[in-house]
Design goal:
The structure holds three protein chains of three kinds. Chain A has one domain: Arp2/3 complex 21 kDa subunit ARPC3 (Orthogonal Bundle). Helices cover 72% and strands 0% of the residues of chain A. Chain B is α/β, with parallel strands linked by helices. Chain B has a domain of 158 residues: Rossmann fold (3-Layer(aba) Sandwich). In chain B, 33% of the residues lie in helices and 25% in strands. Chain B is built from ten helices and ten strands. Chain C is built from eleven helices and no strands. Chain C is mostly helical. Chain C is 73% helix and 0% strand. Chain C starts with 13 loop residues before the first helix and ends with a helix. Chain C folds into two domains: 133 residues, no CATH class; 72 residues, no CATH class. The chains are: A mainly alpha, B alpha/beta, C mainly alpha.
Chain lengths: 197, 244, 239
């Protein structure tokens, strides 16, 4: 296993912590306005940004931890019915796909974001099917899935608008977070790319 | 034979990525146990100098801390000898509790939990931190307490020298006094970067003055404070009310 | 606005003083029992409800607070339950069982976090090697949350959301813009925090929290509670 640059690793942990904190706080803020979390997907935005800025393993861990931590600390999303565990799997997959596509495959930001959104829906469907029998959920998984997708259109639009702006702004301020492009090997490369088994 | 300096800086220069020259040939030394003020208005290069001393920014020139030169591969050794307290203590308190934060350095250096705990308690006592605060999260402490906790976190590494960046930021008068008393008790060499002249006057017998990245003065603090016009010219003081 | 995000209620009760590991054991037993207890007869679930109520009483967690914190779940739990009432007997039974178990599990977690500091919970998780990465990440998130809460308080746009009469669209736009700004500041701050960690000797390895002695009596209590819950569920199945 290659060595990890401690400074890059420390930055990554700290950034993951702060983005995860946003994942905890934004839903609280939206709930205070009276809007349901499922409409604007406030937890998704920081995790999506994390996918662009962090290594795949860290992004996946963050996507997994945030819904569960939020469930335990704030009571939302609920652990029972198992919405928080479903979201944990969903966000972990979304963040991983975005990170792999953007940072490893070096594809454009839009491609990574759209792929992430699609994978999110697929994983949500699979996880809902798997959970339905085990937890004896009364609502059919397909009904649940279409309902979630339809309700989350505003939130998906927010991600498409806000995430690229946030990522571009952060990469401008912190060029060390920009993954090197194949067309420009001299670009600064994040040392966190080495943090992979 | 003279005693080796705790900190020796020779012709230190640094240029930002945008091309702006932040430090230009700065040279000075600090003797063991000496307290020196690093003065200058905002933008003079004080913080940049401190970041270069610990190797976070890579400047040109030489930095030698307690006989160890700052070269690639030696950063960790230098950082154990020279501790840096940030202007914002919240940036340095990253663990869930104060106790774990202060003990972080010794644990990272390989100390056993018991050894780290002993060093933690000693450092907390050195800065006058109430032991009841150790189990608390950082956000449960006042600004002054966080500042002292951040200093304690550095002292656990038993550095030869301590650099502080704007230590009186957001401190009220009692907080400043408590910090001043804490620093006065410490025996390590200190470099206190600040534009707060009243804070350093009783603490530091000597002062360095930076202006536009250059060292423009290195003399006794008392002598410096007497020349008010010069201080105004350097942006370290304001003219009396009514004067232009 | 508080500088912490968790639901901890600061009291001095036997449950507050109980070791976090003991409480976690008790919770694990209770949740397992709630999931495996039969829907019919109803007494096992009622028994578990009584166990939960007595725990809340011991922890000085007011019933009013538990009810308030369960209210946001009303739609998520209530909707499927109400839908199930439109179906046949088995669907109604499944709906009722679903609602009861969900309330029990949610209630159990709410009581736990009301009597346990979040830092203690995460430190316990981090003390297990296999969970250290996730626990440590949780600790960084918790610390980040308190820092960001302080920033939100200072951010003008966050206060603009409280402007009376502000239209919903304007408030959502302000919140979105504030979020983007916060993300940018979070990234800049992470640079400084990362430097602080390295300056104190961080070499990329996550450190285990300091070991704490295992209070056998308390662990025994937690285990006994867990076993009692499982016994109730088991007796219901075998009866």
């Amino acid at each position: 296993m290659p060595n990890t640059d401690p400074l890059a690793r420390a930055r990554e942990l700290s950034l993951a912590g702060l983005l995860g904190a946003l994942g905890l706080l934004l839903p609280v803020g939206f709930h205070a306005l009276g809007w349901a979390g499922k409409v604007f997907l406030p937890m998704h935005l920081p995790i999506v940004v994390a996918g662009f800025l962090l290594a795949p393993s860290t992004a996946a861990s963050l996507g997994f931890v945030v819904p569960l931590l939020s469930a335990v600390l704030t009571g939302m999303p609920p652990l029972a019915p198992p919405i928080a565990p479903l979201m944990a799997v969903e966000l972990a997959a979304k963040a991983t796909v975005i990170s792999v596509v953007y940072r490893r495959l070096r594809l454009p930001l839009w491609v990574a974001l759209l792929l992430g959104i699609v994978v999110d829906w697929i994983v949500l469907a699979l996880a809902a099917v798997a959970a339905a029998d085990f937890f004896a959920i009364a609502v059919p998984p397909t009904t649940y899935l279409w309902g979630v997708i339809a309700l989350s259109v505003p939130g998906t639009i927010i991600q498409i608008v806000a995430a690229p702006a946030a990522v571009a702004g952060i990469e401008r301020r912190l060029p060390s977070l920009v993954p090197a492009r194949k067309s420009n090997p001299a670009s600064p490369r994040s040392a966190s790319e080495d943090d992979e088994p | 034979m003279g005693v080796a300096p705790a900190l020796l800086v020779e012709r230190l220069s640094y240029t930002h990525s945008g091309g702006q020259r932040a430090l230009d040939g700065v040279s000075f030394s600090i003797a063991p146990g000496e307290r020196v003020a690093l003065l200058g208005p905002n933008g003079a290069g004080k913080s940049t100098l401190l970041w270069c001393l610990v190797g976070v920014l890579r400047g040109e020139g030489k930095v030698i801390v307690d006989g160890i030169e700052l070269v690639p591969g030696k950063e960790a050794a230098v950082r154990r000898k020279l501790g840096l307290a940030f202007s914002e203590p919240d940036d340095q308190l990253f663990m869930p509790t104060i106790k774990r934060d202060i003990a972080f350095g010794p644990r990272a250096a390989g100390d056993s939990p018991e050894q780290a705990n002993r060093k933690m308690l000693l450092a907390a006592a050195q800065v006058g931190l109430d032991p009841r605060l150790l189990e608390r999260a950082p956000h449960e402490l006042s600004s002054g307490e966080r500042r002292r906790a951040a200093v304690a976190a550095i002292l656990t590494l038993e550095p030869t020298a301590l650099a502080l960046d704007e230590p009186t930021n957001s401190l009220d008068a009692p907080g400043r006094q408590a910090l001043s008393q804490t620093l006065a008790r410490l025996t390590c060499a200190q470099l206190i970067a600040t534009h707060d002249l009243e804070f350093v006057r009783p603490l530091c017998a000597r002062a360095l003055v930076l202006a536009d990245g250059k060292l423009v003065a290195d003399e006794s603090t008392a002598a410096l404070m007497e020349d008010h016009d010069w201080l105004v010219e350097r942006g370290l003081a304001v003219p009396p009310l009514g004067e232009p | 606005m508080p500088h912490h995000i968790d639901l901890y209620l600061k009291h001095d009760s036997p449950l507050h003083r109980l070791d976090t590991r003991a409480k976690s054991l008790a919770l694990a037993g209770f949740v397992t029992a709630a999931l495996v207890a039969p829907a019919s007869p109803a007494w096992p679930l009622l028994g578990l409800c009584a166990m939960l109520a007595s725990t809340a009483f011991l922890g000085r967690v007011p019933a009013r607070v538990v009810a308030q914190r369960l209210l946001p779940l009303a739609l998520v739990i209530g909707a499927p339950f109400l839908l199930s009432l439109l179906g046949g007997e088995s669907t109604r039974a499944a709906g009722g069982s679903f609602a009861a178990r969900s309330l029990l599990v949610a209630g159990a977690f709410l009581v736990l976090v009301a009597v346990t500091r979040a830092v203690d919970l995460l430190e316990t998780i981090s003390s297990y090697r296999i969970l250290r990465g996730l626990g440590s990440l949780g600790e960084f998130i918790l610390r980040g949350a308190s820092l960001l809460l302080e920033e939100v308080i200072r951010t003008n746009r966050a206060w603009a959301l409280r402007a009376p009469g502000a239209r919903a669209a304007k408030r959502v736009a302000a919140l979105t813009a504030a979020s983007v700004s916060l993300v940018g500041r979070a990234a800049a701050r992470s640079d400084r925090v990362g430097a602080a960690m390295v300056l104190r000797g961080f070499d990329g390895t996550l450190l285990a929290p300091p070991p704490r002695p295992l209070p056998l009596a308390e662990i025994g209590l937690g285990t006994a509670f867990a076993l009692a819950c499982l016994l109730i569920a088991g007796l219901g199945r075998w009866a």
